[in-house]
Specification:
Elements (H helix, E strand, L loop, with lengths): L1 E2 L6 E2 L18 E3 L6 E3 L17 H29 L3 H13 L86 E4 L4 E3 L6 E5 L8 E11 L2 E9 L3 E3 L15 E13 L5 E5 L7 E5 L1
Parallel strand pairs: 6-13
Antiparallel strand pairs: 1-2, 3-4, 5-7, 7-10, 8-9, 8-11, 11-12, 11-13
């Protein structure tokens, strides 16, 4: 029996969520039947849908191996040719060939060659001698005596009376409570198989299936709850799946008390998975639960 990697609790085969801490588990491997196309557990030898023998798919590995052999053969055939071509390339010979081709082309325009002088001669420019400019003498102008100006008489100003101001009372805004976003409502799934009250024996392959017209989001799933009485106490086994079916694990056989007739009850509803801050997973119900059906596994 497997154990949870977080809390080390024992987990039955086929459980996708740990019943103790809620940690998601790896889903069991599935295999597709070559006759009817149904998907079933890899450990089965007979297809539960059509009853044919489940055979391993050998065609795909054979095609992959054949493709690898063809690629290796092409590399071994064309590799030496490419290597000889790279080794035979001579950069110097290619440059000489291009220069010979250029020398055979007639020159249409004669471009004179310019020979730069190594020591250019610099001719100094004549320096102009500044000429002194005579400064004119300033003749003082006569000083004018200012006339006395009349002193203006001060005009009495009117002092305005203070205007009474009206005091406004501050308006206190009453905060409104935030409006909660309503969650989408999903209709209750309808159980299909097995029929209510069905009975099975040892080695039976039991498939729980239901019908739902709700489209799941990536963070939503069908929460299937399988309940039975063991040692006089009720045991609830929650399983979160994305499909509308679930194969009952063989480990549940004879887990229910004989006094109850080995009865197993099951129901399903649509939930949303929420991951808490501590890493645990909780489920928020998006609709009512289906009817609770019962099957007996003696």
């Amino acid at each position: 029996m497997k154990k949870c990697s977080r809390c080390r609790s024992e987990i039955l085969e086929g459980q996708l969520v740990c019943p103790e801490c809620g940690k998601p588990q790896r889903s069991p491997r599935r295999v597709r039947c070559r006759y009817c196309g149904g998907i079933s557990s890899q450990g089965l030898q007979v297809c539960p849908h059509c009853g044919e023998q489940l055979k391993q798919d050998w065609l795909r590995p054979s095609l992959i191996f054949l493709g690898l052999v063809v690629i290796v053969a092409l590399v071994m055939i064309s590799g030496p040719r490419l290597l000889r071509g790279v080794e035979g390339f001579r950069p110097a010979q290619a440059i000489d060939t291009i220069q010979a081709m250029v020398s055979d082309v007639p020159v249409l325009v004669d471009v004179p060659s310019l020979t730069p002088s190594l020591t250019p001669s610099i001719t100094p420019s004549p320096t102009s001698t500044p000429t002194s400019t005579p400064v004119p003498s300033v003749t003082p102008s006569p000083t004018l005596t200012p006339r006395p100006t009349d002193t203006p008489t001060a005009t009495p100003t009117h002092t305005p009376s203070p205007t009474p101001t009206r005091t406004r009372r501050p308006v206190t805004a009453t905060p409104r409570p935030p409006t909660a976003t309503p969650l989408p409502t999903a209709a209750a799934p309808a159980p299909l198989t097995p029929e209510d009250g069905s009975s099975y024996g040892e080695g039976a392959i039991i498939r729980l299936a239901w019908q739902s017209f709700y489209t799941l989001s990536p963070d939503e799933c069908y929460l299937l709850t399988v309940s039975y009485v063991q040692g006089g106490a009720r045991v609830d086994l929650p399983v979160c799946v994305q499909e509308t079916q679930w194969w009952v694990d063989d480990g549940l056989y004879l887990q229910a008390d004989q006094e109850t007739g080995r009865a197993y009850h099951w129901s399903v509803r649509v939930v949303r998975k929420d991951v808490n801050e501590d890493g645990s997973v909780s489920y928020v119900s998006l609709g009512p639960s289906s009817e609770e059906w019962t099957f007996y596994w003696r």
